[in-house]
Design goal:
By secondary structure, the chain is an alpha/beta fold. Helix content is 35%, strand content 22%.
């Protein structure tokens, strides 16, 4: 039997893939981060299946139950609330446990992800980037991790809530006042917005607003050094 890790829309329901709809229609059980949230998605597509909860607080325990379902001959799909399971969402422990058992396949059903959506419109951010996800809500830990990310020299992607976005951007500005930022707010939703520019200009843009709404994905590009654009003159092997 198979465990399908199914990506779901991060906002726009039209981003659900044909394959994801088919898999969710065919499996015996759907495990999900929030049964109420996933029920709304399934109702939109006319899918009626048994749902079980598997979230950050019970993932290890739920993984054992899901393994038992697979062992009894049932195919299971897993959905987090939005986007791709295991990417700043539950699902990694479940996939690891089922794969470690060795009796069942763990199959990805790819689809929407905020990080890839933002990278696709960000322009040149270099040859590589680090996906960090959510930083610590504690200022000291957040600041220390930002210093580590900047020291690596690559662009990095973080997720942030509307309640902490300004604090996080201000921390970024303190660590690297000359960096460049591409911030995606409410990606794929009706009020989607991309704000790009210097860290100072992005902070100023958001600070002028009476209220900040929506989740953010943010790409931070460190200040480019003088030799970043030089061609590689080393002979090919």
């Amino acid at each position: 039997m198979n465990l399908y890790m199914v990506a779901t829309p991060i906002g726009n329901l039209e981003d659900m893939t044909y394959r994801a709809v088919r898999i969710l229609s065919e499996v015996d059980v759907i495990a999900c981060e929030d049964t109420r949230h996933t029920m709304q998605l399934l109702s939109h597509y006319g899918i009626h299946k048994r749902l079980i909860a598997c979230h950050a607080h019970n993932e290890a325990e739920s993984a054992e139950g899901i393994l038992n379902l697979l062992g009894s001959g049932q195919n299971v799909a897993y959905c987090s609330d939005a986007g791709t399971p295991g990417v700043s969402d539950p699902g990694a422990r479940l996939a690891e446990r089922v794969r470690a058992d060795g009796s069942h396949k763990v199959i990805p059903v790819p689809g929407a992800s905020a990080v890839t959506a933002l990278v696709s419109v960000a322009g040149n951010i270099g040859k590589s980037f680090t996906f960090e996800g959510f930083l610590s809500p504690k200022k000291g830990r957040r600041r220390k991790r930002l210093e580590e990310l900047f020291s690596a020299g690559n662009a990095f992607v973080i997720y942030e809530s509307p309640f902490r976005i300004l604090k996080t951007l201000e921390d970024i500005s303190e660590v690297s006042p000359s960096c460049r930022v591409v911030a995606g707010r409410e990606l794929t939703k009706a009020y989607e917005e991309i704000i790009a520019g210097s860290i100072k200009s992005v902070i100023e843009s958001l600070s002028r607003r009476e209220r900040i709404k929506g989740e953010f994905a943010v790409i931070v590009v460190p200040e480019e050094s003088d030799d970043n654009d030089e061609e590689d003159t080393e002979p090919e092997a």
